[in-house]
UniProtKB/TrEMBL annotation:
Residues 22-171 form the Pseudouridine synthase RsuA/RluA-like domain. Pfam families: PseudoU_synth_2. One of its GO terms (molecular function) is RNA binding. GO terms for biological process: enzyme-directed rRNA pseudouridine synthesis. CDD domains: PseudoU_synth_RluA_like. It comes from Insolitispirillum peregrinum. InterPro entries: PsdUridine_synth_cat_dom_sf, PsdUridine_synth_RsuA/RluA, RluA_PseudoU_synthase. It comes from the Bacteria. Belongs to the pseudouridine synthase RluA family. This is tRNA pseudouridine32 synthase / 23S rRNA pseudouridine746 synthase. SUPFAM superfamilies: Pseudouridine synthase (SSF55120).
Amino acid sequence: MTPDWSDKALQDRVLYRDRLIMVINKPAGLPVHPGPGGGPTVEDWFPRLCFEHPRPPALAHRLDRDTAGCLALGRSQKGLSRLGKLFEQRKIQKVYWAVVQGVPAEDSGIVDLPLAKVNGQRGWKMKADRQTGQPAVTEWRLLGHNERRTLSWLECRPQTGRTHQIRVHCQIMGLPLVGDPVYGPASGDEAPPMMHLLARSLTIPLYSDKPPVMAEAPVPSHMQQALAACGWQK
């Protein structure tokens, strides 16, 4: 169910706000909008995030249910339209932090593999498909790894916005995300960890006469131990 936060706790999740847009810190494990099965969503909070505006904000893009971090909202039709154009033109810089299983052979690289949606017995997923897939490009670099070299901390900068893009590209590299229920290896744990993917920051050139808007999400509690093992300091 949607966390029953107080107004203050909910407003503490606002990372940036002005008259046109808002960026909030989405928790992992909660979809941004209703799906076929219904249930609570991030959108349930929007009426409590109006502040001085008469209408609630609206989604400008999406994050996966199990991804935490920066989620941009339009506070007006003008703000929503401006965000939509910036995302479409790929002018918004998105930075993700991922904890993956294994260590890459290089310190940085680019994955350029088109992705297509496929349906299976257990539901749909994305896969690499150079014939029918849509362009998908992810720049990445290694930020650290643990002593046993079983985990790595990656910074990923998607240049396109395909569904599950980072998750699939990491899997293709042989570095599946920790806790990924779809693209990670089968886990024998009774309670596998939550997915270790954070939408760390957004840089948005919203105004032509002002510096870009910048928002950064804190590391969620479920990722802190693994990131600390890879060299991150709180």
